[in-house]
Amino acid sequence: MMRIEQPYDEATGRPIPRRTPTSAPYFEAARQGKLRLQKCPRDGFFFYPRTACPRCLRADWSWKDVSGRGTVYSYTVDRMGLDPAQRSQVPLVVAIVELEEGPRMTSNIVGCTPEDVSVGQAVDVTFEDLGEETLIHFKLATS
Ligand SMILES: [Zn+2]
Question: What is the whole-number distance in angstroms between the Cα of residue 43 and the centre of ligand 1?
Fold first, then answer.
């Protein structure tokens, strides 16, 4: 079995996402403070990045910016740091966010305590530069 090494940020020890040719535009947009997803001309936006629309398998999708607004579809709280590299982050809210454009993204809700989070809450995208990559998180909407 081939083992792929996970890159870690040297300063914080936290895991860094690994780009692929397919996901590179997603991470490039994040670097610019934008949430950019693939959009199928027939089925609309989808996430995660892949080579074909998950519904119709078309490959003529394009990259489009989305609003970054969504709601908490579901969440859990990691209070132990199951990944040792994430122990400095606990308690860590791991959520499924449903974007207003439709797709659901697994992400973290940051800038609040777990007790502040509830299903259905409005959230906005936020970005965290971590060494060579930018992480995409969500925060509770202020309005
Ligand atoms: Zn499609």
Answer: 4
For residue 39, the enclosing domain spans 24-140
The pLDDT tens digits of the residues spanning 75-91 come to 999 999 877 888 888 99
Please, which residues bridge with residue 123 across strands?
Answer: 70, 140
Centroid of ligand 1 to alpha carbon of 46 (angstroms): 9
CA of residue 62 to ligand 1 center, whole Å: 11
pLDDT band at 6; cut points 50, 70, 90: confident
Cα 57 to averaged position of ligand 1 atoms, centre (Å)? 6
Which uninterrupted H or E stretch holds 125? Answer: strand 122-130
The predicted structure's pLDDT at residue 9 = 84
Rounded Cα distance between 89 and 139, Å, is 15
Residue 110: count other Cβ atoms within 10 Å of its Cβ. Answer: 16
In a domain, 52, yes or no: yes
Specify whether the CB–CB gap between 72 and 118 falls below 8 A: yes
* Domain count within the chain: 1
Local confidence band at 11 (pLDDT 50, 70, 90 cut-offs): confident
